[in-house]
């Protein structure tokens, strides 16, 4: 029976176990460039034993940022500072990943710890774009509906960002098609009311996601895995639903996607979600079984036993630990120990390793 401490191989990349950190915005970048905060934040989680660290939503264009403080990969100057972070992550034996994103109508807002509203141009905001000119909700400005040539340009922006991610030494790329951001806006009939080739039928609403995935896959090295994060449901009648998610994931598999990171919600601010421990694991399980593709699950997974149970019962191949990783960067190291595994302690910390745990030591020299 597969368990959470077992390695996971995706193409040529091996995750040392199945505990990963999902993308979590830090709102600490300037002009898309990472700060010292990012180096310390991600470096600490790599030391803490995560198998995969997904860098936060990293914008493929300036206007694709959620806030003015998001990371970006829209120009070559952003490669070197991100390469430093990727190198630090890899040096700790973790896999370095990055989430590529375009916020669409949810862009141009204040940092996550402030009231969520569109910023004015004076405050650093911008005019947002979307499939249709429909605002996300109260406090959010109306976006402009994208023209066909602008949609094609966005596909190119994802491809260029993936090329830069590779140059920066990232080993996985995750395309952000969840949480109500641009690609999800195209998927959902509640945000997409176009009547051209990108709106209406399932085939049309999924077209942009399929185009981005196919184009990124063609750019992203064959030996490296490609991930896609989706919201399995909008949690609203008449919205994007789990049946459509399963169907989309079947197609994404044929396009060379290696793992679906299954989340939910984010498209409609008033949607009610039955939030509780593991409340999204059922979606990951269903997509894994019905679409026949590896999945990651995320959402209120906080104990080692819970993470192990998810993998042992075949609900997901990978478990993402979000806010718990913000509370405790050493969660994976402690989980490995709690589940009776062999921890990878950095040599600098070996004298603090609990008795009975054995270090695979000197992992820094492998990277
Ligand atoms: C501070 C913060 C920032 C986040 N930023 C992102 C992001 O950039 N991309 C994304 O897909 N999800 C983002 N999320 C969602 C998390 O990846 C995760 O799905 C969510 O927190 C649920 O998992 P948890 O209960 O383990 O925290 C963010 C969550 C938090 C708390």
From TrEMBL:
Superkingdom in the source lineage: Bacteria
Gene3D superfamilies xref list: Aldolase class I
GO MF annotations, alphabetized: FMN binding; NADP binding; NADPH dehydrogenase activity
UniProt KW Transmembrane helix keyword: no
Sorted UniProt keywords: Flavoprotein, FMN, NADP, Oxidoreductase
Family matches, as InterPro entries: Aldolase_TIM, OxRdtase_FMN_N, YqjM-like
Protein name from the UniProt record: 2,4-dienoyl-CoA reductase
């Amino acid at each position: 029976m597969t368990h959470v401490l077992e390695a996971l191989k995706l193409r040529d990349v091996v995750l040392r176990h199945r505990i990963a950190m999902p993308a979590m915005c830090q709102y600490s970048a300037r002009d898309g460039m990472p700060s010292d905060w990012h180096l310390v934040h991600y470096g600490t989680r790599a030391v803490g034993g995560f198998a995969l660290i997904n860098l936060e939503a990293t914008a493929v264009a300036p206007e694709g940022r959620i806030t003015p403080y998001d990371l970006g990969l829209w120009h070559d100057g952003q490669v070197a500072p991100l390469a430093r972070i990727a190198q630090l992550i890899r040096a700790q034996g973790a896999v370095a990943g990055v989430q590529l994103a375009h916020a669409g109508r949810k862009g141009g807002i204040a940092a996550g710890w402030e009231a969520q509203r569109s910023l004015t141009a004076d405050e650093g905001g911008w005019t947002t774009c979307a499939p249709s000119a429909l605002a996300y909700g109260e406090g959010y400005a109306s976006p402009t509906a994208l023209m066909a040539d602008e949609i094609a340009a966005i596909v190119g922006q994802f491809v260029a960002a993936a090329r830069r991610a590779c140059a920066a030494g990232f080993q996985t790329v995750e395309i952000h098609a969840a949480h109500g951001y641009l690609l999800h806006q195209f998927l959902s009939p509640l945000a997409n009311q176009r009547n051209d080739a990108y709106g209406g039928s399932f085939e049309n609403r999924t077209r942009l996601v399929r185009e981005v995935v196919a184009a990124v896959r063609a750019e992203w090295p064959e030996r490296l895995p490609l991930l896609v994060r989706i919201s399995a449901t909008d949690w609203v009648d008449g919205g994007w639903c789990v049946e459509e998610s399963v169907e989309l994931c079947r197609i994404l598999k044929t396009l060379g996607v290696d793992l679906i990171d299954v989340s939910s919600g984010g498209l409609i601010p008033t949607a009610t979600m039955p939030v509780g421990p593991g409340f999204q694991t059922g979606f990951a399980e269903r997509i894994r079984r019905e679409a026949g593709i590896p999945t990651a699950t995320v959402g209120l997974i906080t104990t080692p036993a819970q993470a192990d149970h998810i993998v042992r019962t075949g609900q997901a191949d990978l478990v993402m630990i979000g806010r718990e990783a913000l509370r405790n960067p050493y969660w994976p190291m402690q989980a490995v120990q709690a589940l009776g595994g062999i921890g990878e302690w950095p040599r600098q910390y070996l004298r603090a390793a609990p008795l009975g745990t054995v270090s695979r030591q000197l992992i820094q020299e492998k990277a």
